[in-house]
Each structure stands twice: as structure tokens, then as C-alpha cells.
Design brief:
The chain has about 290 residues and is α+β, with helices and mostly antiparallel strands. It contains 4 helices and 10 strands, in the order H-H-H-E-E-E-E-E-E-E-E-E-E-H. About 35% of the residues lie in helices and about 20% in strands. Helix 1 packs antiparallel against helix 2 and helix 2 packs antiparallel against helix 3 (about 95-125). It starts with 11 loop residues before the first helix and ends in a 10-residue tail after the last helix. Bound molecules: copper (II) ion (CU). Copper (II) ion binds near residues 247 and 256.
């Protein structure tokens, strides 16, 4: 490149601008490389909803990544091409209203478009009505633990009473022994679901706001005291996944976690049978 100031060596100001352009390109190259190798990427997706999110996220990354790449290359080029060897003494360009309007309008269009396209995926979890044969599981959170209740072979949850709630007595739900419907209810600390079957979690909190979050499901839902919030999902890949409380809920928040165990349907039925047997209840044949 020929020096513009007529000096044999570029001025310090000139070289520092060249360095800025090189840095812009370097940062761009490193960013693109980090995203391309996908070393720190999303965990495995274990249902249709999670895969839909991932493809939407992927499309957004491609689009935004493409714009980022072009803009950064152009930025470096403009710094190099239009740099001055001396700091500007006169005021230069005041911008271009038409161009500003065009790219602001285009960015608005793209962002609103991305939001509109994602609403169907969001609604698929939060507004979709679960099929009638969905497995209903009550999930109760408290500082700092999770409890899950299964209705048992009769498909009905037994009566609960607030005054009967006692962790020390192993009754975190306040199950009322006087109600025969509740005799086959199973209360456990790990969430087990059969693969491929619709599940409705009935989320409740005993104290403050908590949040049910499973990364592999790409689902997050608050549990709000005084409310029963249904959360519908179907996990289709057997495995063990972490359930983390994702709402800062107190000093023990960091240890408020449990597991989501997705089992093959036969293994799930067997687990239910074994649990009922261990409670001294005769298992009845599963109704399908
Ligand atoms: Cu919590």
C-alpha cells in the first residue's frame, strides 16, 4: 500500500488504524471458528419440541451469523480503505438517512420475523392441549427439593391436606390416609416418565417461585405458589437428564436438582409395579 502522506513510514496514527482493522477481522475469524466447531454447544435434544427449537435456533444463527460476518468484513475494509494518516481536523460524513432507514427497517423485519416464526414452537408446549391418555404427574417444589406424585393404577390422585404436609413423616404432599383413592399414589423424588408418551406435569410450589428446567427438553416453566401450572411434554429418548431449579429461590438454590429418567414403556411399567409392591399394594394390570 502506498503511503498517502508522502512519508516513507506510515504515521503512528495510520498504523494503529491498520491494527484496528486487523483486530476486527481476527475477532471475527475467531468467533466464526468457535461457533463452527460446536464444541460448546447445546446438549442433546430429546423430543420433537427440542429439535424444533434447535432448527429454529440454527436458522437464526446462520442468518445473524451471515450478517455479522459481512458487517465485520466490511467494517475492517472501511477502516483500511478510508483511514487517514492524521486525525481528522474537519468534520466528515454525517451519515445517510436513506441507508439508516433501510438497515434499521431490515433489522426490525428480521427480528420480528424470527419472533413470529418461533411462536408456533412456544405455543406447542405452553398452549397445546395434552391428549386424554397423557400421564399426569404432580410435581411439587419447595426450598430446596423436588417431589413427584403418580396417581397409581386407578389413575386418580388421592386427597391431600395442607396440615398433613410433613417432610419428616415422609409425606411431602400431605396425602390423607383416610382417602382410599390415595392408597396407590406413589410419591418419589426422581421424575420417571415412559418414552414416547405424553406427560402432563402439574407444577406447584410450597413456598417461593421455583422453575422446572430440563435442558434436553428445552423447557423452562415457573412454579408459582398458589397456582397449579400444567406443563405438557413428550420425551422420546431414554436416558437420565438433570432437572434443575432455574429460579433463584434461596440460599440452597444451587443444590435444588433432581433427575428426569426417561424409560422404555415396559421398564416404566415394571418400575411402577415394583414401587407398588414395595408399598405392599397389589399391582393391578395396566390399563392401556
Ligand atoms: Cu428453587
Amino acid at each position: 500500500m502506498t503511503p498517502r502522506s508522502g512519508l516513507a513510514e506510515p504515521s503512528r496514527y495510520d498504523s494503529s488504524l491498520m491494527l484496528v482493522a486487523a483486530l476486527v477481522w481476527l475477532v471475527t475469524a475467531v468467533t466464526v471458528a468457535l461457533f463452527s466447531i460446536r464444541r460448546w454447544w447445546l446438549p442433546e435434544a430429546i423430543n420433537a419440541h427440542a429439535r424444533a427449537w434447535d432448527s429454529h435456533f440454527g436458522a437464526t444463527m446462520w442468518l445473524i451469523g451471515g450478517v455479522f460476518l459481512v458487517a465485520q468484513i466490511a467494517l475492517g475494509y472501511v477502516i483500511l480503505r478510508y483511514r487517514s494518516s492524521e486525525p481528522a481536523t474537519e468534520s466528515g460524513s454525517f451519515g445517510n438517512d436513506r441507508l439508516e432507514l433501510i438497515w434499521t427497517g431490515a433489522a426490525t423485519f428480521v427480528f420480528i420475523g424470527i419472533c413470529v416464526l418461533s411462536t408456533a414452537i412456544w405455543a406447542g408446549v405452553h398452549l397445546d392441549i395434552a391428549p386424554p391418555n397423557a400421564l399426569r404427574i404432580e410435581a411439587v417444589a419447595k426450598q430446596f427439593a423436588w417431589n413427584f406424585r403418580y396417581a397409581g393404577p386407578d389413575g386418580k390422585f388421592g386427597r391431600t391436606k395442607v396440615e398433613l404436609i410433613s417432610d419428616a413423616n415422609g409425606n411431602p404432599f400431605g396425602l390423607d390416609d383416610a382417602d382410599p383413592i390415595g392408597r396407590d399414589d406413589l410419591a418419589v423424588a426422581t421424575l420417571r416418565v415412559p418414552a414416547g408418551r405424553s406427560v402432563v406435569l402439574l407444577l406447584k410450589s410450597r413456598d417461593v417461585i421455583h422453575n422446572f428446567f430440563v435442558r434436553e427438553l428445552r423447557i423452562k416453566q415457573d412454579l408459582v405458589p398458589g397456582m397449579e401450572i400444567p406443563l405438557h411434554f413428550t420425551a422420546d429418548t431414554p436416558g437420565v437428564y438433570e432437572v434443575a431449579c432455574s429460579e433463584l429461590c434461596g440460599l440452597g438454590h444451587h443444590q435444588m436438582r433432581t433427575q428426569l429418567v426417561v424409560l422404555e414403556p415396559a421398564a416404566f411399567a415394571q418400575w411402577q409395579r415394583e414401587m407398588l409392591e414395595s408399598l405392599g399394594l397389589v399391582a393391578q394390570p395396566e390399563t392401556r
